[in-house]
Amino acid sequence: MTAKAPFSDLNEIRAALANLPQPDSEALAAAQARNGMLTKPPAALGRLEDLAIWYAGWVGNARPNLENLQGIVFAGNHGVAAKGVSAFPIEVTVQMVANFRAGGAAINQLLTAFGARTDIVELELDRPTADFTEAPAMSEQDLVAAMAAGWEAVDPKAGLVVTGEMGIGNTTSAAAIAAALHGGGGEAWVGRGSGVDDEGLARKRDVVDAGLALHADALSDPLEVLRHLGGREIAAMAGAILAARHHRIPVILDGFICTAAASVLESVTPGALDHTVAGHVSAEGAHSMMLEKIGKEPLLSLGLRLGEGSGAALAIGVLKGAIACHSGMATFGEAGVSGG
Ligand SMILES: O=C(O)c1ccc[n+]([C@@H]2O[C@H](COP(=O)([O-])O)[C@@H](O)[C@H]2O)c1
Ligand SMILES: Cc1cc2nc[nH]c2cc1C
Protein backbone atom coordinates (compact mmCIF):
# COMPACT_ATOMS: atom_id res chain seq x y z
CA MET A 1 0.00 0.00 0.00
CA THR A 2 1.19 3.54 -0.63
CA ALA A 3 -0.06 7.08 -0.13
CA LYS A 4 0.53 9.88 -2.61
CA ALA A 5 2.91 12.63 -1.52
CA PRO A 6 0.97 15.76 -0.51
CA PHE A 7 3.41 18.05 -2.30
CA SER A 8 4.49 18.92 -5.81
CA ASP A 9 6.80 21.85 -5.10
CA LEU A 10 9.21 23.08 -2.43
CA ASN A 11 6.65 25.31 -0.75
CA GLU A 12 4.32 22.38 -0.23
CA ILE A 13 7.23 20.41 1.28
CA ARG A 14 7.81 23.34 3.64
CA ALA A 15 4.10 23.22 4.55
CA ALA A 16 4.35 19.48 5.30
CA LEU A 17 7.32 20.23 7.56
CA ALA A 18 5.54 23.07 9.33
CA ASN A 19 2.60 20.95 10.35
CA LEU A 20 3.79 17.78 12.09
CA PRO A 21 1.64 15.35 14.08
CA GLN A 22 2.64 14.68 17.68
CA PRO A 23 2.51 11.42 19.64
CA ASP A 24 -0.71 10.33 21.34
CA SER A 25 -0.41 11.83 24.84
CA GLU A 26 -2.97 9.43 26.37
CA ALA A 27 -1.14 6.37 25.04
CA LEU A 28 2.15 7.85 26.26
CA ALA A 29 0.79 8.41 29.76
CA ALA A 30 -0.81 4.95 29.89
CA ALA A 31 2.41 3.28 28.67
CA GLN A 32 4.38 5.20 31.28
CA ALA A 33 1.96 4.01 33.98
CA ARG A 34 2.13 0.42 32.76
CA ASN A 35 5.92 0.54 32.72
CA GLY A 36 5.88 1.49 36.40
CA MET A 37 3.81 -1.59 37.32
CA LEU A 38 5.92 -4.26 35.57
CA THR A 39 7.81 -6.88 37.60
CA LYS A 40 11.25 -5.27 37.74
CA PRO A 41 12.99 -2.64 39.85
CA PRO A 42 12.28 0.89 38.55
CA ALA A 43 14.30 1.69 35.40
CA ALA A 44 16.04 -1.72 35.51
CA LEU A 45 15.42 -2.20 31.79
CA GLY A 46 17.26 1.04 31.09
CA ARG A 47 16.71 2.50 27.63
CA LEU A 48 14.42 -0.39 26.69
CA GLU A 49 11.78 1.26 28.87
CA ASP A 50 12.09 4.61 27.09
CA LEU A 51 11.98 2.86 23.73
CA ALA A 52 8.78 0.99 24.49
CA ILE A 53 7.07 4.12 25.82
CA TRP A 54 8.24 6.15 22.80
CA TYR A 55 6.89 3.47 20.46
CA ALA A 56 3.56 3.28 22.31
CA GLY A 57 3.11 7.04 22.02
CA TRP A 58 3.68 7.17 18.29
CA VAL A 59 1.46 4.20 17.44
CA GLY A 60 -1.20 5.35 19.92
CA ASN A 61 -1.37 2.05 21.82
CA ALA A 62 -0.15 1.69 25.41
CA ARG A 63 0.44 -2.04 24.98
CA PRO A 64 1.57 -2.37 21.36
CA ASN A 65 2.77 -5.25 19.21
CA LEU A 66 5.57 -4.79 16.69
CA GLU A 67 4.38 -6.03 13.31
CA ASN A 68 4.36 -5.14 9.62
CA LEU A 69 7.98 -3.99 9.63
CA GLN A 70 9.17 -2.24 6.50
CA GLY A 71 12.80 -1.82 5.44
CA ILE A 72 13.35 0.47 2.45
CA VAL A 73 16.66 0.77 0.61
CA PHE A 74 16.92 3.82 -1.67
CA ALA A 75 19.59 3.89 -4.38
CA GLY A 76 20.94 6.89 -6.27
CA ASN A 77 23.98 7.89 -8.31
CA HIS A 78 26.19 10.90 -7.75
CA GLY A 79 27.92 13.08 -10.33
CA VAL A 80 30.56 13.94 -7.77
CA ALA A 81 31.77 10.32 -7.91
CA ALA A 82 33.63 11.38 -11.08
CA LYS A 83 35.97 13.37 -8.84
CA GLY A 84 37.60 10.20 -7.46
CA VAL A 85 36.01 10.36 -4.00
CA SER A 86 35.07 6.68 -3.65
CA ALA A 87 37.07 3.46 -3.50
CA PHE A 88 34.53 1.91 -5.91
CA PRO A 89 33.29 2.75 -9.41
CA ILE A 90 29.82 4.25 -9.90
CA GLU A 91 28.46 1.11 -11.64
CA VAL A 92 28.54 -0.67 -8.26
CA THR A 93 25.29 1.14 -7.35
CA VAL A 94 23.24 -0.55 -10.08
CA GLN A 95 25.04 -3.85 -9.51
CA MET A 96 24.20 -3.76 -5.80
CA VAL A 97 20.57 -2.96 -6.60
CA ALA A 98 20.47 -6.19 -8.61
CA ASN A 99 22.01 -7.94 -5.62
CA PHE A 100 19.34 -6.45 -3.29
CA ARG A 101 16.62 -7.62 -5.65
CA ALA A 102 18.12 -11.11 -5.73
CA GLY A 103 18.29 -11.21 -1.93
CA GLY A 104 22.08 -11.48 -1.79
CA ALA A 105 23.12 -8.40 0.20
CA ALA A 106 23.70 -7.98 3.92
CA ILE A 107 20.52 -5.91 4.26
CA ASN A 108 18.38 -8.74 2.84
CA GLN A 109 19.75 -11.09 5.48
CA LEU A 110 19.44 -8.64 8.36
CA LEU A 111 15.90 -7.47 7.60
CA THR A 112 14.78 -11.07 7.12
CA ALA A 113 16.50 -12.11 10.36
CA PHE A 114 14.54 -9.46 12.27
CA GLY A 115 11.21 -10.10 10.55
CA ALA A 116 11.07 -7.07 8.25
CA ARG A 117 10.40 -6.94 4.56
CA THR A 118 12.89 -5.42 2.12
CA ASP A 119 11.64 -2.84 -0.40
CA ILE A 120 14.09 -1.48 -2.96
CA VAL A 121 13.58 1.93 -4.58
CA GLU A 122 16.05 2.97 -7.25
CA LEU A 123 16.06 6.59 -8.32
CA GLU A 124 17.04 7.22 -11.92
CA LEU A 125 20.39 5.43 -11.65
CA ASP A 126 21.14 6.16 -15.30
CA ARG A 127 20.84 9.88 -14.59
CA PRO A 128 23.33 10.75 -11.81
CA THR A 129 22.99 14.05 -9.99
CA ALA A 130 25.19 16.90 -11.21
CA ASP A 131 28.69 17.10 -9.70
CA PHE A 132 28.12 19.58 -6.86
CA THR A 133 31.55 21.12 -7.35
CA GLU A 134 30.26 22.39 -10.71
CA ALA A 135 26.49 22.95 -10.33
CA PRO A 136 23.62 22.31 -7.91
CA ALA A 137 23.29 18.51 -7.58
CA MET A 138 19.56 18.65 -8.34
CA SER A 139 16.99 20.94 -9.88
CA GLU A 140 13.98 21.84 -7.75
CA GLN A 141 11.94 19.38 -9.80
CA ASP A 142 14.50 16.58 -9.20
CA LEU A 143 14.48 17.23 -5.46
CA VAL A 144 10.70 17.25 -5.20
CA ALA A 145 10.45 14.06 -7.31
CA ALA A 146 13.00 12.24 -5.15
CA MET A 147 11.33 13.32 -1.89
CA ALA A 148 7.95 12.27 -3.31
CA ALA A 149 9.38 8.86 -4.26
CA GLY A 150 10.56 8.49 -0.67
CA TRP A 151 7.18 9.54 0.73
CA GLU A 152 5.32 7.14 -1.57
CA ALA A 153 7.61 4.20 -0.69
CA VAL A 154 6.30 4.21 2.90
CA ASP A 155 3.48 1.80 3.67
CA PRO A 156 1.00 3.89 5.71
CA LYS A 157 0.07 0.69 7.59
CA ALA A 158 3.66 -0.19 8.54
CA GLY A 159 4.37 -0.61 12.26
CA LEU A 160 7.98 0.48 11.80
CA VAL A 161 10.08 1.91 8.98
CA VAL A 162 13.83 1.40 8.59
CA THR A 163 15.47 3.64 5.99
CA GLY A 164 18.70 2.69 4.23
CA GLU A 165 20.61 3.62 1.11
CA MET A 166 23.12 2.65 -1.54
CA GLY A 167 24.99 5.15 -3.72
CA ILE A 168 28.62 5.29 -4.70
CA GLY A 169 29.95 8.71 -3.66
CA ASN A 170 27.20 9.39 -1.16
CA THR A 171 29.45 9.76 1.91
CA THR A 172 30.92 12.83 0.15
CA SER A 173 27.44 14.23 -0.37
CA ALA A 174 26.42 13.42 3.23
CA ALA A 175 29.58 15.08 4.61
CA ALA A 176 28.86 18.20 2.57
CA ILE A 177 25.27 18.33 3.83
CA ALA A 178 26.42 17.87 7.44
CA ALA A 179 29.00 20.64 7.07
CA ALA A 180 26.44 23.01 5.56
CA LEU A 181 23.80 22.31 8.23
CA HIS A 182 25.91 21.86 11.32
CA GLY A 183 29.00 24.01 10.61
CA GLY A 184 32.62 23.09 9.88
CA GLY A 185 34.14 21.95 6.59
CA GLY A 186 35.57 18.91 4.85
CA GLU A 187 38.20 18.41 7.55
CA ALA A 188 35.53 17.94 10.23
CA TRP A 189 33.06 15.78 8.35
CA VAL A 190 34.88 13.69 5.72
CA GLY A 191 35.82 10.07 6.40
CA ARG A 192 36.89 7.09 4.33
CA GLY A 193 33.41 5.99 3.25
CA SER A 194 33.67 2.67 1.46
CA GLY A 195 37.46 2.80 1.99
CA VAL A 196 39.38 5.55 0.14
CA ASP A 197 43.14 5.77 0.67
CA ASP A 198 44.90 8.85 2.07
CA GLU A 199 44.99 10.61 -1.30
CA GLY A 200 41.31 9.90 -1.86
CA LEU A 201 40.55 11.24 1.61
CA ALA A 202 42.37 14.50 0.86
CA ARG A 203 40.55 14.80 -2.49
CA LYS A 204 37.25 14.19 -0.76
CA ARG A 205 37.87 16.97 1.78
CA ASP A 206 38.76 19.38 -1.02
CA VAL A 207 35.64 18.38 -2.97
CA VAL A 208 33.42 19.06 0.05
CA ASP A 209 35.08 22.42 0.63
CA ALA A 210 34.71 23.31 -3.06
CA GLY A 211 30.99 22.49 -2.96
CA LEU A 212 30.49 24.54 0.21
CA ALA A 213 32.29 27.50 -1.37
CA LEU A 214 30.49 27.30 -4.73
CA HIS A 215 27.02 27.18 -3.18
CA ALA A 216 27.70 29.35 -0.11
CA ASP A 217 24.89 31.78 -0.94
CA ALA A 218 22.26 29.03 -1.05
CA LEU A 219 23.16 27.15 2.13
CA SER A 220 21.16 29.02 4.76
CA ASP A 221 18.05 27.04 3.76
CA PRO A 222 18.23 23.32 4.67
CA LEU A 223 16.11 22.21 1.69
CA GLU A 224 18.43 24.17 -0.59
CA VAL A 225 21.38 22.42 1.12
CA LEU A 226 19.78 19.12 0.17
CA ARG A 227 19.16 20.29 -3.40
CA HIS A 228 22.67 21.69 -3.96
CA LEU A 229 24.78 19.06 -2.17
CA GLY A 230 22.55 16.00 -1.80
CA GLY A 231 21.52 13.08 -3.90
CA ARG A 232 18.26 11.44 -4.92
CA GLU A 233 18.50 8.57 -2.41
CA ILE A 234 19.28 11.08 0.35
CA ALA A 235 16.29 13.23 -0.61
CA ALA A 236 14.14 10.10 -0.81
CA MET A 237 15.14 9.10 2.74
CA ALA A 238 14.16 12.59 3.92
CA GLY A 239 10.80 12.18 2.14
CA ALA A 240 10.25 8.75 3.68
CA ILE A 241 11.08 9.92 7.20
CA LEU A 242 8.70 12.86 6.76
CA ALA A 243 5.95 10.56 5.45
CA ALA A 244 6.41 8.25 8.42
CA ARG A 245 5.94 11.25 10.74
CA HIS A 246 2.68 12.16 9.03
CA HIS A 247 1.48 8.55 9.33
CA ARG A 248 2.79 8.41 12.96
CA ILE A 249 5.05 5.47 12.11
CA PRO A 250 8.19 5.13 14.25
CA VAL A 251 11.46 5.09 12.28
CA ILE A 252 14.89 3.63 13.03
CA LEU A 253 17.64 5.70 11.41
CA ASP A 254 20.73 4.06 9.96
CA GLY A 255 24.26 5.43 9.49
CA PHE A 256 26.11 8.48 8.21
CA ILE A 257 24.12 9.09 5.03
CA CYS A 258 20.71 8.40 6.55
CA THR A 259 21.50 10.74 9.45
CA ALA A 260 22.50 13.50 7.00
CA ALA A 261 19.11 13.11 5.30
CA ALA A 262 17.34 13.22 8.67
CA SER A 263 19.38 16.29 9.71
CA VAL A 264 17.79 18.27 6.89
CA LEU A 265 14.32 17.76 8.40
CA GLU A 266 15.53 18.60 11.92
CA SER A 267 17.20 21.76 10.62
CA VAL A 268 13.94 22.93 9.02
CA THR A 269 11.75 22.05 12.01
CA PRO A 270 13.35 21.22 15.36
CA GLY A 271 11.57 18.13 16.71
CA ALA A 272 10.91 16.75 13.21
CA LEU A 273 12.82 13.61 14.21
CA ASP A 274 10.94 12.91 17.45
CA HIS A 275 9.39 9.81 15.84
CA THR A 276 12.86 8.41 15.09
CA VAL A 277 15.64 6.68 17.02
CA ALA A 278 19.24 6.25 15.94
CA GLY A 279 19.82 2.56 15.27
CA HIS A 280 23.59 2.68 15.53
CA VAL A 281 26.71 4.77 15.33
CA SER A 282 28.66 4.03 12.20
CA ALA A 283 32.43 3.68 11.93
CA GLU A 284 32.41 6.67 9.58
CA GLY A 285 34.27 9.03 11.94
CA ALA A 286 31.94 12.02 11.99
CA HIS A 287 28.73 10.04 12.46
CA SER A 288 28.84 10.34 16.25
CA MET A 289 29.20 14.13 15.92
CA MET A 290 26.24 14.27 13.54
CA LEU A 291 24.12 12.25 15.99
CA GLU A 292 25.06 14.67 18.75
CA LYS A 293 23.99 17.58 16.57
CA ILE A 294 20.52 16.10 16.19
CA GLY A 295 20.39 15.02 19.83
CA LYS A 296 20.26 11.26 19.24
CA GLU A 297 21.99 8.55 21.27
CA PRO A 298 22.62 5.47 19.11
CA LEU A 299 21.24 2.10 20.24
CA LEU A 300 24.18 0.07 18.91
CA SER A 301 27.87 0.58 18.22
CA LEU A 302 29.19 -2.36 16.24
CA GLY A 303 31.75 -0.79 13.92
CA LEU A 304 29.51 -1.09 10.86
CA ARG A 305 30.15 1.20 7.89
CA LEU A 306 28.02 -0.53 5.30
CA GLY A 307 24.90 1.57 4.97
CA GLU A 308 21.94 -0.16 3.23
CA GLY A 309 20.00 0.20 6.50
CA SER A 310 22.13 -2.51 8.14
CA GLY A 311 22.64 -0.85 11.54
CA ALA A 312 18.99 0.15 11.72
CA ALA A 313 17.91 -3.39 10.85
CA LEU A 314 20.01 -4.78 13.70
CA ALA A 315 18.43 -2.28 16.09
CA ILE A 316 14.99 -3.77 15.28
CA GLY A 317 16.11 -6.57 17.62
CA VAL A 318 16.54 -4.12 20.49
CA LEU A 319 13.13 -2.55 19.83
CA LYS A 320 11.54 -6.01 19.65
CA GLY A 321 13.04 -6.82 23.05
CA ALA A 322 11.76 -3.55 24.48
CA ILE A 323 8.21 -4.05 23.23
CA ALA A 324 8.10 -7.73 24.16
CA CYS A 325 8.95 -6.85 27.76
CA HIS A 326 6.64 -3.83 27.91
CA SER A 327 3.61 -5.56 26.43
CA GLY A 328 4.21 -9.11 27.64
CA MET A 329 5.49 -8.83 31.21
CA ALA A 330 3.29 -9.33 34.24
CA THR A 331 2.59 -6.49 36.64
CA PHE A 332 3.46 -6.81 40.34
CA GLY A 333 -0.25 -7.28 41.04
CA GLU A 334 -0.75 -9.98 38.40
CA ALA A 335 2.31 -11.96 39.45
CA GLY A 336 1.85 -11.54 43.21
CA VAL A 337 5.34 -10.08 43.56
CA SER A 338 5.89 -7.63 46.44
CA GLY A 339 6.77 -4.05 45.48
CA GLY A 340 9.79 -2.21 46.92
O1 LIG B 1 26.02 4.17 6.63
C1 LIG B 1 27.20 4.51 6.80
O2 LIG B 1 27.57 5.04 7.84
C2 LIG B 1 28.18 4.27 5.66
C3 LIG B 1 29.52 4.57 5.86
C4 LIG B 1 30.39 4.33 4.81
C5 LIG B 1 29.93 3.83 3.58
N1 LIG B 1 28.62 3.56 3.42
C6 LIG B 1 28.13 3.00 2.12
O3 LIG B 1 29.14 3.09 1.14
C7 LIG B 1 28.69 3.77 -0.01
C8 LIG B 1 29.29 5.13 -0.07
O4 LIG B 1 30.68 5.11 0.08
P1 LIG B 1 31.56 6.06 -0.82
O5 LIG B 1 32.97 5.77 -0.39
O6 LIG B 1 31.30 5.63 -2.24
O7 LIG B 1 31.09 7.44 -0.53
C9 LIG B 1 27.19 3.90 0.09
O8 LIG B 1 26.58 2.94 -0.71
C10 LIG B 1 26.92 3.72 1.56
O9 LIG B 1 25.76 2.93 1.76
C11 LIG B 1 27.76 3.77 4.44
C1 LIG C 1 30.07 -3.64 -2.52
C2 LIG C 1 29.40 -2.48 -1.84
C3 LIG C 1 28.22 -2.69 -1.12
C4 LIG C 1 27.59 -1.61 -0.50
N1 LIG C 1 26.47 -1.50 0.21
C5 LIG C 1 26.30 -0.22 0.58
N2 LIG C 1 27.30 0.47 0.10
C6 LIG C 1 28.14 -0.33 -0.58
C7 LIG C 1 29.32 -0.10 -1.28
C8 LIG C 1 29.95 -1.17 -1.90
C9 LIG C 1 31.22 -0.91 -2.64
Automatic annotation (TrEMBL):
<dbReference type="InterPro" id="IPR003200">
    <property type="entry name" value="Nict_dMeBzImd_PRibTrfase"/>
</dbReference>
<dbReference type="InterPro" id="IPR023195">
    <property type="entry name" value="Nict_dMeBzImd_PRibTrfase_N"/>
</dbReference>
<keyword id="KW-0328">Glycosyltransferase</keyword>
<feature type="active site" description="Proton acceptor">
    <location>
        <position position="308"/>
    </location>
</feature>
<comment type="pathway">
    <text>Nucleoside biosynthesis; alpha-ribazole biosynthesis; alpha-ribazole from 5,6-dimethylbenzimidazole: step 1/2.</text>
</comment>
<dbReference type="GO" id="GO:0009236">
    <property type="term" value="P:cobalamin biosynthetic process"/>
</dbReference>
<dbReference type="Pfam" id="PF02277">
    <property type="entry name" value="DBI_PRT"/>
</dbReference>
<comment type="similarity">
    <text>Belongs to the CobT family.</text>
</comment>
<comment type="function">
    <text>Catalyzes the synthesis of alpha-ribazole-5'-phosphate from nicotinate mononucleotide (NAMN) and 5,6-dimethylbenzimidazole (DMB).</text>
</comment>
<dbReference type="InterPro" id="IPR017846">
    <property type="entry name" value="Nict_dMeBzImd_PRibTrfase_bact"/>
</dbReference>
<keyword id="KW-0808">Transferase</keyword>
<dbReference type="InterPro" id="IPR036087">
    <property type="entry name" value="Nict_dMeBzImd_PRibTrfase_sf"/>
</dbReference>
<protein>
    <recommendedName>
        <fullName>Nicotinate-nucleotide--dimethylbenzimidazole phosphoribosyltransferase</fullName>
        <ecNumber>2.4.2.21</ecNumber>
    </recommendedName>
</protein>
<dbReference type="GO" id="GO:0008939">
    <property type="term" value="F:nicotinate-nucleotide-dimethylbenzimidazole phosphoribosyltransferase activity"/>
</dbReference>
<keyword id="KW-0169">Cobalamin biosynthesis</keyword>
